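Example 3.2
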Amino acid sequence: MINAAATQGPTVWSLFADATLVHRDAYAVEDKRVRLTYRAFRERVERLAGALLARGARHGDRVAILSENRCEYLEVQLACAKLGLIAACPNWRQTGEELARCIALVSPILIFASPRFEATLEDVDQSTLDRLVFEDSYEKALADAPGLSDSPVGLVAPEDGLLILYTSGTTGSAKGALISHRAMIARAMTMMADWSIDASRGFIAWAPLFHMASADPSLSTLCQGAKVTIIDGFDAEAIAATLARESVGWFVLMPGMIERMSEALRRLGTAAKGVAAAGCMANLIPGHQIAEITRLVGAPFLNSFGSTETGIAPASRSKIPIGVVLPPQPKLQSSFCQIRLVNDEDEEVAVGEVGEMSLRSPTLFSGYWNAPEVNAREFRGGWFHMGDDFVRNPDGTLDFVDRRKYLIKSGGENIYPAEIERILLASDRVSEAVVVRKRDEKWGEIPVLLIVARDPTLRGADVMDLLNGRIARFKLPKDVLFIADEELSRNATGKIRRDLLERRVADRDFGGTKP
């Protein structure tokens, strides 16, 4: 008889603990204040686990973290991994009211906060909850707690929850996506397989640790025995200096940040020590920016498509070669996942037809926290439905069409903003292009185009010339507004907040069309 416990697989903690045995004197984490070896880092995590047990934490409990990027953030996540707790990681850029909803959703037993966000925590009005503030009370708790070599609270299983990462909530309250140990390990394996990342390469965690773009690869790196360099937000100079001295697997780059990163690398004038792959979401970035940054870091650019709920799956296997300017490229299905494109009746569509992306994969999350109706809808039929429309090409590649919720219905016709944006982003005269909807008495909705010009001589007529003959006339924007880059509203990952831009367009909060 096979022992079921022996076949259920590892957890994030067990992999990290094994990495510590092999790499105990190598550096695990570094931020601007401290640098810790695997041995020292593990000791701190185990002391924190002891402190949590002393405060009554038990398997399945949630703790919340309200902090900028720093070593303690990963200490909390790994202590949760050891004890079978769940670390809820809300976006500190939200308002106090939004943060309060995110924290109340998961009913944490304790909140960790950095000194920077201690006042924010007071505004959230969670005064009845236990809290530990990084530095003073946190360090005292670690000093007073015994270290733990073995968890006294029972085995942690691969399907147990590890993190709750919140969706952007651009159309309502943010939802908490529960990520299990199984999903986190599968995401690490897929990254390494599809992006040719070997175990010795480190990671630069500059993107917020409350987001998958830093959370997933940070934990993956620590499970492999490599180093995580933690940077407090997008500091292009600090990132460039780190690239010059550290070998990096995935160099995360978001839309809207690439030109600033290129400028910093040119100023530094030192080649990157080694990067396996850079960037993400290539379809949102002008081709000339991709060509420049890949030359500077000496690595291909990732033509990726994933989400908080899915990790890097379902379509992130293709790369754009170094220094090449290409039109938007089809995407390749990620390893270890199944994809179906379905219509409104959940029937699989034919090759060449638009359908909603649905998938099965070990990288998938375990559902939204405390949202049974949403989970029933999004996981209907045993597949997770992403809300993104794609087309399957005859060669098996995938073309992204757009988010279903961004679809503009104008006079009974469907207009996908991404179709217009892709054409304009291929021009070296355009830095950013965003299409949003606007209510219209005659047509119901009309497309309005917001342009950040790279060429200062660009005018509205030039923009329309780029589109004429490339798309149907009913899809042409009814207004073209030129704006500054800083006027674009973005979330933590650099994605455009269309809801905010649509509101500003409706309120006439932007300038007018250029002649």
